[in-house]
C-alpha cells in the first residue's frame, strides 16, 4: 500500500472502532504530517480519499470532521456479464426515449440522468470568454476552418494529448458537434448497412441507437465490471462474425464505470490490428479520474492508425455547447468527407470560446475541483445504496466518472421500478436500456454527478422502499 492509502485505512479503523466519532474534528494536515512523519501531500491525499468514501467532510476555515462510521462496503458485481450470443438487429429507441424524457424534467431527482449537475460546471466564466471572443471573430477564419474546425481549438486539444504523452497531429483532429457526432462520423467511415459492430455488454444506449439508425447489427461481448471487455470473448466474436468495427469505452465505461488496465488496452489494440478491425474509442469520461494521473486511452497504443479517439467537452465543461472531436488516424480523410456531407461545420462562436478558455480560463483547476466533487458524491451515493437497498445488492466502485452500476436481487424488474419511481419524482436508468436484447432486467445505473443534499438522501430512501 502507498503511504496515503495506509493512513486512510488507519483513520478508517479509528472511525470504525469508535475512537473517532461523528462530529469529531480530525487533526490538522500539519499536525498529522508531523505526528506520522509523512508529507502534507500524503495527508491531503488520505483526507481526500476519506471524503470520497463519505467518512469525513471539510468545513471552510475549520478543518476536517467525521461524518459517520463506515458501513460494510457492498460487494461488486462478480465476474463477466452474460452477453447474448450472436448478432442482433437493434431496436431500442422507443424505450430509450421514453426513459430519457422523464430524466430531463427539472422536478425529478436526477439519478437516471446522463449529465453532471450544471452547478459544478463553470458556465459563468465560460460565458465571459464567449462574449469576448465573439467580438473578435474573423469571418474569413471561420470559413477557412469550416469542416476541420477552429485551428486554435485543434491545437489546444493536440497540446492536451501531448501533455498526456500522446503525439497526435493537429491535422488528424476534426472538431464535431459533440462526441456523439464524432462517434457517428467514425461509424459511417468504416461500415455499411448490414455490417456488424462489436459493443460491450452492457453498453451505452446511444451506441445502440446509432447502430439502429445506421441499420447495423450489434454483437454484444462479455465485459468485466472493473476491467472492461473480455479479450478472449472479443477474439472469438471477431472470428465468428467478422465485424467491421468495435465501439468501446475503455476508460470509465458507461454504465459500468470499468477501467481497462494499460496492458489490456495495449493487447486490445494489437488484437484489433491483427484482425483488421477498427476501434471507435468513446473517451468522454477520461478527464474525470479520481487518482493521481489520467488513464491512458487505447489510442496511446495505436501504431497503425486504426483507433478513432472520440471525446468532447460536454461531460467536463459545457453540455449545451456541443463541442467534441475525433482524432481520426488513418480515417481522417473519410471522416472529413462525411462531415462535409452531413453537419458541414461546428458553430464557430462556441469553438472560439472554448479555445480561449483552454488557454486562459483555468480548465485544469476546474477539473481538479470537479473531480473532487464527483469522488465525494460517489461516496455519498454508495453509502446510501448500502443503507437503503435490499439485501443481496451489489454495486460497482468506479475510479472515475459519475456512474454506479447496481445489481439487485434477481426477482426485481427495474423497468417496473422505473415507472413506480417516476410517481415519486425520482428518475433511474433501468438495465435493459443498455442491451440490444433487453438483458440486465435486475440492474440499474445511478448518476452520482449531482451534489448530495437531504432531497437526494430521501430519494434514495424512497427508492429503497420501492425496491423492497
TrEMBL record:
In the C-terminal section; belongs to the class-I pyridoxal-phosphate-dependent aminotransferase family. The keyword DNA-binding applies. Keywords: Aminotransferase, DNA-binding, Pyridoxal phosphate, Transcription, Transcription regulation, Transferase. Transmembrane segments: none annotated. Residues 1-69 form the HTH gntR-type domain. GO terms for molecular function: transaminase activity. Pfam families: Aminotran_1_2, GntR. This is PLP-dependent aminotransferase family protein. SMART domains: HTH_GNTR (SM00345). The keyword tRNA-binding does not apply. InterPro entries: Aminotransferase_I/II_large (IPR004839), HTH_trans_reg/aminotransferase (IPR051446), PyrdxlP-dep_Trfase (IPR015424), PyrdxlP-dep_Trfase_major (IPR015421), PyrdxlP-dep_Trfase_small (IPR015422), Tscrpt_reg_HTH_GntR (IPR000524), WH-like_DNA-bd_sf (IPR036388), WH_DNA-bd_sf (IPR036390).
